[in-house]
Design goal:
The chain is an alpha+beta fold and 360 residues long. The chain is built from 16 helices and eleven strands. 52% of the residues lie in helices and 16% in strands. Strands 4-3-2-1-7-6-5 form a seven-stranded antiparallel sheet. A four-stranded mixed sheet has the order 8-9-11-10, sandwiched between helices.
Length: 360
């Protein structure tokens, strides 16, 4: 079966909208003129959150941000007939959550518009960030993760033992900090020492940071710091502050979960920096987590200082670009040094497994 109606397609590399024809052959073939832009196997096509009157589709198990937006009812029916797993995965769940929360979000947005006039964008960001629907945060986090890998030319490290160790460590740190959100930590292979928390519970540890960490406590302090940003909604707050009113208007009146908005949000998160207040809050969270586990936070500061002073990494691409190290920060972390009274956070075998997670 072939469908000739032109529809909108985003290839995920930029915000350009392509007018394409979709052909239902042995796969969903997306063509522009005489050229084929994409070929999606039917089994991997998924339905994504979208505006009323339009169906949006993406490709599961892929790092691509490509999206297909369809309003033609005949083509929607054809896609439904050929693609057996449209509703599987987070996309369909997110869509239902977004629908359920739309009234509440509209009220928040109305209050935000008033706050923007009275107090300015930073105050509005503080109000709005904790209330951004999880469906939107998930979409932004997924897009940002893919952009992150593109920017750093990174691949995900998939050793099962190392991943299991990371999952347990992050769960232990989150529990100590009272963070109950679903988290999805991953290690990505790069030559830059970094770590990053993104919306939707995405937490990334860069493999070079694992190489630089000498003990589990050093690494755990950095991860706890990232969980602090997650707990305080800092990534959403900096997205709103950096994107300005466009984010708010897109959420209320537009279709922010479309490819253009998602790519813009992802790029903003990758390039924007945290405020000094946000860094202090994340440091305090890390200090609280480590001391509650009976471990000193001082190794956390030692790792940051070693990366800063002991190596010639490009600052713009390192952990310190997002987390500039000051004497006050180091002094505050060191002031909370306590004897270790809790058990080691990782066994020797688990530490080795985590450090070698990218070996295979």
């Amino acid at each position: 079966m072939s469908q000739q109606t032109e529809v909108d397609f985003f290839d995920g590399r930029d915000n350009q909208r392509h007018a394409v024809v979709v052909r239902m052959l042995d796969a969903m073939v997306i063509q522009e003129g005489e050229g084929t832009l994409a070929r999606w196997p039917f089994a991997y096509v998924r339905l994504l959150p979208s505006a009323h009157g339009m169906a949006r589709y993406g490709l599961a198990d892929s790092d691509s941000l490509a999206r297909l937006e369809v309003t033609d009812e005949m083509l929607i029916a054809a896609i439904k007939m050929h693609c057996p797993h449209l509703g599987r995965g987070e996309g369909a769940v997110a869509s239902r959550r977004l629908t359920l929360r739309i009234v509440g979000w509209s009220l928040v947005a109305a209050a935000s518009a008033l706050g923007l006039v009275l107090y300015g964008l930073p105050v509005v960001a503080d109000i709005v960030a904790p209330h951004v629907p999880q469906a939107v945060q998930y979409e932004i986090g997924e897009a940002s993760a893919k952009q992150l890998k593109l920017v750093f030319h990174a691949t995900t490290c998939r050793d099962a033992h190392g991943q299991a160790v990371l999952d347990r460590l992050v769960a232990k740190l989150a529990t100590a900090g009272g963070l109950t959100r679903h988290l999805r930590p991953r290690v990505i292979k790069t030559t830059i020492p970094n770590a990053m928390a993104l919306p939707g519970g995405r937490v990334f540890v860069f493999s070079k940071l694992l190489d630089e960490a000498q003990t589990p406590d050093e690494l755990s302090g950095v991860i706890a710091h990232e969980l602090g940003h997650e707990a305080h909604d800092d990534s959403m707050r900096r997205l709103i502050e950096s994107s300005g009113t466009g984010f708010l208007l897109g959420m209320v009146f537009g279709d922010f979960t479309g490819s253009a908005g998602i790519v813009l949000a992802a790029n903003t998160l990758i390039t924007a920096s945290y405020s000094r207040q946000a860094e202090k809050g994340a440091d305090d969270f890390a200090i609280h987590v480590m001391t509650r586990l009976g471990r000193s936070p001082k190794p956390f500061g030692a790792l940051l200082e070693r990366i800063t002073k002991g190596h010639d990494f490009p600052l713009a691409m390192s952990l310190l670009a997002d987390h500039p190290l000051t004497e006050d920060r180091l002094a505050d972390i060191a002031a909370h040094d306590v004897p270790d009274t809790g058990p080691p956070l990782l066994s020797t075998a688990d530490w080795v497994a985590l450090q070698t997670i990218c070996a295979n």
